[in-house]
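Tip: read the tokens left to right.
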């Protein structure tokens, strides 16, 4: 590889990791031990890149595709891109991966004894995004979140050595809630990709059509639907919140940040009058800090 192509590759990886600042929750905050921060960022880099592949946000002839051995034509096929990425992921466990973000993930996998399953789940979710654009029931959506969101929380607990069955269950509730919140924020963006993550049965219940979701602002029926789904997400966050009180020290702060990020995003959606069509409602720092304080207070009471 030439120095120029290496520089492009490094720039692409930095751009992927740089997206952590745009998430609803802190990915690897400064107060964590350096080893945890490095491991969490390695996992985030994987998760962000696989999402970018699934969303078609990477240049077909860019460094990411080249590292996976894909030419511009093949890279335009998102399923082929995901297949190549999965092949390289498997090299993390039994060889030497080609992509720099996966090479960076390998020390984390070995140090923490991580298994392929959570990573494969995230790839499967993005593969499903290429084939499924609508979800008939809430249970169908929860099954999707099992692939698209829950593996992330499971990886966090594995990295920190705190993955008991009860904590995994609580983590799944929080991660599913965070995924639903993100879907609510991104209704318009997802529709532009021909995806709707609002269950069809709920659209019917609230008399919402797909054309209603395509309008520049939300009418009363759409707002009622979003309020209903936001309530579900809030209930899931509430159910998962005991996870925070079950751990201690800096990990408690991290998990409180994840939970508070979801709650603050829900506050933003509420403050927008549940009109998510004008643009994604974003949590404010004061709201995030307020929610983090409330989550930590509950954790102290329950812990």
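Filled-in amino acids:
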């Amino acid at each position: 590889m030439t120095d120029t192509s290496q520089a492009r590759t490094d720039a692409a990886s930095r751009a992927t990791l740089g997206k952590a600042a745009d998430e609803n929750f802190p990915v690897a905050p400064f107060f964590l031990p350096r080893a945890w921060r490095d491991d969490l960022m390695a996992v985030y880099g994987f998760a962000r890149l696989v999402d970018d592949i699934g969303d078609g946000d990477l240049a077909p002839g860019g460094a990411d595709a080249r590292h996976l051995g894909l030419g511009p034509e093949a890279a335009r096929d998102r399923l082929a891109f995901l297949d190549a990425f999965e092949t390289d992921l498997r090299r993390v466990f039994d060889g030497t991966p080609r992509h720099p973000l996966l090479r960076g993930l390998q020390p984390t996998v070995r140090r923490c004894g991580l298994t392929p399953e959570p990573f494969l789940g995230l790839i499967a979710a993005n593969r499903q995004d290429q084939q499924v654009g609508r979800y008939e029931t809430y249970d169908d959506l929860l099954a999707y979140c099992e692939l698209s969101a829950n593996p992330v929380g499971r990886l966090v607990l594995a990295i920190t050595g705190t993955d008991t069955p009860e904590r995994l269950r609580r983590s799944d509730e929080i991660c599913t809630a965070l995924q639903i919140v993100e879907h609510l924020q991104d209704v318009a963006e997802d529709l532009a990709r021909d995806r709707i993550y609002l269950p069809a049965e709920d659209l019917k219940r609230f008399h919402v059509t797909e054309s209603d979701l395509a309008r520049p602002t939300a009418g009363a029926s759409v707002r009622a639907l979003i309020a209903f789904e936001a309530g579900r997400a809030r209930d899931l966050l509430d159910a998962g919140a005991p996870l925070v009180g079950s751990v201690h020290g800096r990990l408690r702060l991290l998990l409180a940040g994840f939970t508070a990020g979801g709650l603050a995003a829900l506050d933003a959606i509420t403050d927008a009058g549940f009109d998510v069509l004008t643009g994604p409602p974003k949590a404010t720092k004061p709201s995030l800090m307020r929610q983090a304080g409330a989550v930590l207070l509950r954790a102290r009471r329950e812990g």
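DSSP finds 17 helices and no strands in the chain. The longest helix spans residues 249-271.
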